[in-house]
Amino acid sequence: MTDKLIKYFLLWLTIFFIQLDIWLLRKFGVISFSQFIFHIDMGLEGLIHSDQALLASFVRKCLLVPTAIILVIQFSLKYYNLSVMEKIRKIYFSSILILSLSLFLHKMSFFEAISFYYDYVKTGEDYFALHYADPKHVSIKAPQKFKNLILIYIESLEETYSDTHLFSHNLIASIQSDTIANAYHFNQYEQAPATGWTIAGIVATQCGVPLKTMTHNSIANGESGFLNGAFCLGDILKNQGYKNIFVNGPDLTFSGLGKFLKTHGYDEAYGRAEWYKENKSKDDMNDWGLYDDLLFIEAEKQLDKLESNPNTPFNLTLLTIDTHGPNGFVSKHCANRHGVTKDNFEGIVECTALQVRDFINHIQNKGYLENTSVVIFGDHLAMKNPVYSKLINNHQRHIFNVFINNGNLKKNREEIVGFDMFPSILTVLEFDVEQGRLGLGYSGFGAKNSMVNSDYYHEMQERLLGYSPRYAELWHG
Questions:
Q1: What are phi and psi of 433, to 5 degrees?
Q2: Sequential DSSP letters for 38-102
Q3: β partners of residue 373
Q4: Is-contact 211 237, C-beta < 8 A?
Q5: Measured between alpha carbons, how far is 316 from 125 in angstroms, rounded to an integer?
Q6: How far apart are CA 316 and CA 123, in angstroms?
Q7: Omega before residue 386 within 30° of 0, cis
Q8: What is the pTM of this model?
Q9: How many whole angstroms separate alpha carbon 477 and alpha carbon 474?
Q10: How many C-beta atoms lie closer than 10 Å to residue 53's C-beta?
Q11: By mean pLDDT, which of 14-18, 101-105, 402-406 is the weakest?
Q12: Residues 110, 111, 115: CA angle, nearest 5 degrees
């Protein structure tokens, strides 16, 4: 009896891994091993409290389907004398399990990650340590007069949505740099390794480091910190007297976002739980959290309140959600004002851009730009969504970005990655950063560092995910 149960369990695991592979591909597209393991390490609490539809889909496809297949097989073997079923019964289930697991790990780039670790053991060279400029030891001089910062992450927004060869028209024309006064834009904002999901994109742009998982992050084991050894944007601004506020729709427990913000200088953070405390209802929420139209209303309230205290500089950071895959979310504003329907993902993207532009107009009309810089970019390239087949037809996909600043800025190149945003933002705020270098990033404004070129970024793509004892220290600092 025990032997039979073991065989059925192995068969269930086999079907589970096959279904999981299919489910991940359909919902998220191709994801990295780092991304998959990071979220496992973080625990599922945030997901359970966030995207209910996604969770329900996982239960149906990855748990119920294998169970149903096992029950059918068991019923057939018990009540029918089928030769085919007898042959299935004799299959060595563990071999099938190994095959399905190997296929799954291959899709997760697991074997590539093992190769990186082997290369480190063989050479002893820590690529991260060689290129990491610890912000704690970099000279960062504050300006005589502080500028405020409004930092906006737009979920999965990339430049490809402007390609009129792929779409009927430019979906993001309203927020492109050529339509906004005093705006700057980098033509090649590339996605670096281990930065291709939301929390990873935030960490990259605010701390100048990737989210790697070949070391134990330990955050899911009840520890309160998140990259305790890193010194990030919020930390620097906090030390200079800034008030840091983060506003987004989803639950802050998901992927450890709340812990990251608390660890790195944010005074206040708002997510699903906080919005319920602010008397928001379930009708105000999509599967992840607060709809973007209501989010921008709350952001305007926060901004007006912050601006009413001119003696305290601030960093107001926003994160949108309506363009999240796999299908996006239609707010009442987009449905009523722009006629967007739930099966019109292109309309969701365009409406999101228009809402961002409305927020920019609010900032301009209030006169806030006189002493405030606005930085807007996608948190990462888009994942699986209804127009994903169009996006991947563009073989040079870049993340959307725009800087709005009244002062005179001089770009020193067009090619950047998320790590470069960290020193670039401080440069825009008129901080004097030694050599324009923080973390793995080099500022895209001011004097160009001779270290930065296409070869540097190519080597980063090839070697950054290698094992790094120095990187591990950031989690236990």
A1: -95, 125
A2: HHHHH-SHHHHTS-HHHHHHHIIIIIIHHHHHHHHHHHHHHH---HHHHHHHHS-HHHHHHHHHH
A3: 149
A4: no
A5: 39
A6: 44
A7: no
A8: 0.85
A9: 5
A10: 12
A11: 101-105
A12: 120
With a CB cutoff of 8 Å and minimum separation 6, the contacts of 109 are: 32, 33
Rg of the chain over all Cα atoms, to the nearest angstrom: 24
Q: List, for residues 208-264, the tens digit of each pLDDT value.
A: 999 986 444 444 445 568 999 999 999 999 999 999 999 999 999 888 899 999 999
How far lies 67's CA from each of 72, 77, 79, 106, in Å?
9, 15, 18, 24
- Contact (CB, 8 A) for 397 and 159: yes
E strand or H helix at 345: helix 345-365
Amino acid at 258: G
- Strands 148-154, 372-378: pairing is parallel
Alpha-carbon gap, residue 315 to 114, rounded angstroms: 39
Report residue 354 as tokens. Answer: 């228009």
Cβ burial of 71 (10 Å; 0-12, 13-18, 19+) is exposed
Beta pairing class for 441-442 and 148-154: unpaired
- Measure the CA–CA gap between 22 and 1, rounded to whole angstroms: 32
* pLDDT tens by residue, 361-405: 999 999 999 999 999 999 999 988 999 999 999 989 999 999 999
What pLDDT, on a 0 to 100 scale, did the predictor assign at position 85? 46
The span from the CA of 6 to the CA of 97, in Å, is: 12
Q: With the CA atoms of 180, 186, 192 and 196 taken in that order, what torsion angle do they form, in degrees rounded to the nearest 10?
A: 20
N-terminal to C-terminal alpha carbon distance within the chain = 51
Which amino acid is present at 395?
A: H
156-173 burial, b for 16+ CB within 10 Å, e for fewer?
bbbbbbbbeebbeeebbb
